[in-house]
TrEMBL record:
Pfam families: Pyr_redox_2, Pyr_redox_dim
InterPro entries to which the protein is assigned, alphabetical: Class-I_Pyr_Nuc-Dis_Oxidored (IPR050151), FAD/NAD-bd_sf (IPR036188), FAD/NAD-binding_dom (IPR023753), FAD/NAD-linked_Rdtase_dimer_sf (IPR016156), Lipoamide_DH (IPR006258), Pyr_nuc-diS_OxRdtase (IPR001100), Pyr_nucl-diS_OxRdtase_dimer (IPR004099), Pyr_OxRdtase_I_AS (IPR012999)
Pyridine nucleotide-disulphide oxidoreductase dimerisation domain segment(s): 346-454
PANTHER family with a match to the protein in the record: DIHYDROLIPOYL DEHYDROGENASE (PTHR22912:SF160), DISULFIDE OXIDOREDUCTASE (PTHR22912)
Binding-site positions, NAD(+): G181, G182, G183, Y184, I185, G186, S187, E188, E204, G271
GO-annotated cellular components: cytoplasm
Family of the protein in this entry: Belongs to the class-I pyridine nucleotide-disulfide oxidoreductase family.
Name this polypeptide is given: Dihydrolipoyl dehydrogenase
Cofactor: FAD
Length: 465
């Protein structure tokens, strides 16, 4: 018979939002189960997002390094790429990380329920899989169902029209690749394939790729992309894809003229949509916005008091670390703690070449918030480690208040910017001033010294420029 199974807290979705929320809720004493519709745990991030993309990007850089080391004394024969092996490597990395989530669930005695969840009431849901259906009741529910790629008219996914998932898993290295959308996902993978040797065309609807980032950083990326022979076509409105079986013809409108480009694949990376349509949220009385985002308060609580939502299905940056952060806050709220989210020091990284990493506010954002700010910039061309790594392009920029010199934002573009941004995120989180950073001893020679040097610039006593 179909009797309901009772649980304290159910988490729907095992992505970086859901799995972190589940682990933390279990750590705080809840009996937790996670519902996941796919066999593999870890959501988009681990399986078809952050992790596999970084594996591909890493290999693409190693390939370039192997090819162009001659001027530093590394002589190789003909460097060849075995794309099947690249794909095998990607899968190995993903499997390892996904198994890691299974281990964490086991360690924290979290049950995994495989199947697709659908709300039955505000205290129960039904999980359906291939051969069974079961009802579960809960005291608390955390929705972490994530998002999926948006499809655009004229580009129905299938065959040679692919999304980011398809782009990560291509069966062979394409000679010609078209990427629609020059946001961070499109740009990262466009660069990786260009590094592997594909000729890539980016069609971007607005007047710039990476529009979320400041012009001086985008310029550096554009220059690199051009050096990789990537065609960046901005102001291009994608119209239609014609799949001819062994190639695809992509038409787009540019300045009122229709043009075409033929490629092996066209990848559409124009944004993502929250997975909230098929959950039956209305049955539970959970409110969403017209964009399908779940409305939540600062603890992640929806309008239904014991139902929470986190990650890509709520407002804000669709990023893995944001999902995990919200997951921890929701778990603590369920445990009766007074935790709330604070997005002031939210980092974001774009893994192009060189990397872009930002945290807190840009100068413009700070000004529009009414803050009186100054900026200080230090270039990697004056940093010994960067020069020795033949990666001297880029800079560190600090945004700080004029009156008390408190750090409110930072932008880094350069090799390993992704790892350097955390120092500045901590600085913002801790309310540090530029002097705090300048007085912090940084090891030499490191890229991170550029952060200290930027603080010296801010104080008006630059040593190294
Ligand atoms: P998801 O990771 O989407 O997980 C949701 C899970 O819920 C899925 O496993 C899904 O199967 C399951 N689910 C959905 N509906 C149901 C249901 N009804 N029943 C049962 N299970 C269900 N972010 C970064 O921070 N850094 C990066 O470098 C980065 N790179 C990316 C690269 C790519 C190519 C892509 C596509 C994304 C990238 N992201 C990156 C974004 C990141 O992947 C997402 O922000 C993150 O995965 C969101 O986490 P989440 O937990 O909200 O949802």
């Amino acid at each position: 018979g179909d009797y309901a199974i009772d649980l304290d807290t159910i988490v729907v979705g095992s992505g970086p939002g859901g799995y972190v929320a589940a682990v933390h809720a279990a750590e705080l004493g809840q009996k937790v189960a996670v519902v996941e519709r796919y066999d593999a745990l870890g959501g988009v991030c681990l399986n078809v997002g952050c992790i596999p993309s970084k594996a591909m990007i890493q290999v693409s850089h190693e390939y370039l390094t192997a090819k162009d080391g001659a001027d530093r004394g590394i002589e190789t024969g003909d460097v060849k790429l075995d794309f099947d092996k690249v794909q095998e490597y990607r899968k190995q990395v993903v499997n390892r990380m996904s198994n890691g989530v299974a281990y964490l669930f086991k360690k924290n005695k979290i049950d995994v329920i495989h199947g697709t969840a659908f709300m039955k009431s505000d205290h129960s849901l039904r999980v359906i899989n291939d051969d069974s259906a079961q009802t579960y009741t809960f005291k608390n529910l955390i929705l972490a169902t994530g998002s999926h790629p948006i499809e655009i008219p004229g580009f129905k996914f299938g065959g040679r029209v692919i999304d980011s998932t398809g782009l990560l898993a291509l069966p062979a290295l394409p000679k010609e690749l078209v990427v629609i959308g020059g946001g961070y996902i499109g740009s990262e993978l466009a660069a990786a394939y260009a590094n592997f040797g594909s000729h890539v065309t980016i069609l971007e609807g607005t007047d710039t790729i990476l529009g979320a980032y400041e012009k001086d950083m985008v310029k550096i990326i554009e220059k690199r992309f051009k050096a990789k022979d990537i065609d960046i076509i901005t102001g291009a409105m994608a119209k239609e894809a014609k799949d001819n079986g062994d190639s695809v013809e992509v038409s787009y409108e540019l300045n009122g003229e229709v043009k075409t480009v033929t490629a092996d694949y066209v990848a559409v990376a124009v944004g993502r949509k929250p997975n909230t349509d098929d959950l039956g949220l209305n049955i539970a009385g959970v409110e969403t916005t017209d964009r399908g985002l779940v409305k939540v308060d600062a603890q992640g609580r929806t309008n239904v008091e014991h139902i929470y939502a986190i990650g890509d299905i709520v407002a804000g940056a669709a990023l893995a670390h944001k999902a995990s952060y919200e997951g921890k806050v929701a778990a603590e709220a369920i445990a009766g703690q007074s935790s709330v989210v604070d997005y002031r020091a939210m980092p974001a990284v774009c893994y192009v070449d060189p990397e872009i990493a930002t945290t807190g506010l840009s100068a413009d954002q700070a000004k529009s918030e009414g803050l009186d700010v100054k900026t200080a910039k230090f270039p990697f061309s004056a940093n010994g480690r960067a020069v020795s790594m033949h990666s001297d392009e880029g800079f560190v920029r600090l945004v700080f208040t004029k009156d008390n010199e408190q750090v409110v934002g930072a932008q880094i573009i350069g090799n390993n910017a992704s790892d350097m941004i955390s120092e500045l995120t901590l600085a913002i989180e801790s309310g540090n001033t530029v002097e705090d950073i300048a007085l912090t001893i940084h090891p030499h020679p490191t890229l991170s010294e550029a952060v200290m040097d930027a603080a010296d610039v801010a104080l008006g006593y630059p040593t190294n420029i």
